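In keeping with the milestone schedule agreed at the kick-off meeting, the structural modelling team has produced records for the first pair of proteins. Each record is given below as a sequence line and a structure-token line. The laboratory manager (R.T.) confirmed that both were archived under the project's standard naming scheme.
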Amino acid sequence: MAAHTAGAPAPVSGPDLASAWAVGRPGPVASGPLVAVRRPVPAPGPGDLLLRVEACGVCRTDLHLAEGDLPPRRPSTVPGHEIVGRVVATGAAVGRFRVGDRAGGAWLRGTCGGCRYCRAGRENLCPASRYTGWDADGGFAEAAVVPADYAYPLPEDQSAVQLAPLLCAGIIGYRALRRSALPPGGRLGIYGFGASAHLAAQVALAEGARVHVLTRSAAARQLALDLGATSARDAYDRPPEPLDAAVLFAPVGDLVPVALEALDRSGTLAIAGIHLTDIPVLNYQRHLFHERDLRSVASNTRQDGEEFLRTAARIGIQVTVSPYALARAPQALTDLAAGRVRGAAVLVPT
């Protein structure tokens, strides 16, 4: 796909068709919910960017969408919301980006700007919010359109594969860490250690926290120790010391009481995922008494994204990736579902 002048959409005939994967019939990954498609290269609207996709991270939310845990909002949607791309066309109203720039498309792609949540700086709670790869086609494709106001400028001195996981795994992990109310130098528990967790852990470590990782994967436990975690144990084990804060990244409701019991007095558990299996009945004395808090995390604001990307650059965050060719997107989802991905899975168009 060749570059085009600002404001001019890419041709949509002949060879300018883009390969992509769309969710056909949602179901278990073994049933083949992803369908290979060829579609015309999309044209950007007045406030949009057309990106030639360089890489797109594979998020657990994509798995939830493919398997039907997250009900589809439109038929045959292309998943993917950790998009690193090169701007090949811009809409007439775009001023922040030019053709040739590198830009990132993330999960949040639109809010109303006028509701009480938006006015209060909590746009992640906007009732009219829209999301990439759910309300509109995402980055499991060779080309994608993203709104310029919700895109992030990205550096040229890092590979697209390394940058992609920052755009959701990193941003959501950052917000979850802040929602956990971890005090300076505090004791943090992390339950599950995939793409988001291994990035949030590095932010906490850089801020002086003692990090204890609880996860079923032996490889993930080793990665946690390699990154500087104080301990790494099985998901249902007790950490070696009481926790000031914890973040649950694994979408497993059974771990909620486990994590709450590991908290010290006044500790906070933040649940990072968009989907969670049912939480067992909680016992007030064991799980919540002594002012323990239980919090959810809903999407992110653009400010979260900007803060995290600055933090990641400042601390030199290490992104562990497992690259897959775009043609192997179903395998990437299968490996993610089975817990076989080390760090973050990233799709790379060829």
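The second protein of the pair:
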Amino acid sequence: MNDGVDISKDPAARVEEFLRLIMIPDPDAARRFVAPNVDIHFTGARAMSDIAECSAFNATRYAWVKKRIERSEVVVGSDARSAVVYNLGTLYGAWPDGTPFEGNRYVDRYELRDGLIVKMDVWNDSAEWLLLRAGLV
């Protein structure tokens, strides 16, 4: 997945490898990319303190889900020990009833410090799509 990029020095590659692992889902392997006190917020201000909670939440919302990464954008901090990575793309998968979906936009924001993810914010269109499926909008 990282095409020979040294993920120890490339914040975007670190985030993309983290995402690859978390989408398996393999939270134990993905955990090596996050700080012990990682601060996670999903759409709707859902706070989480461990990445296993991300997989557990996704299991309630989707039969299965994956990310189709379009791009990552990096803002390096002034001290070169920190960076912010924006990862953008679309989700595809199946709703709990098995109905497939694709093209569900997402944007994630990751703050890294010394190569570890210390903060993770996740936004996507799933809530809107679920309201449409329920006939509420």
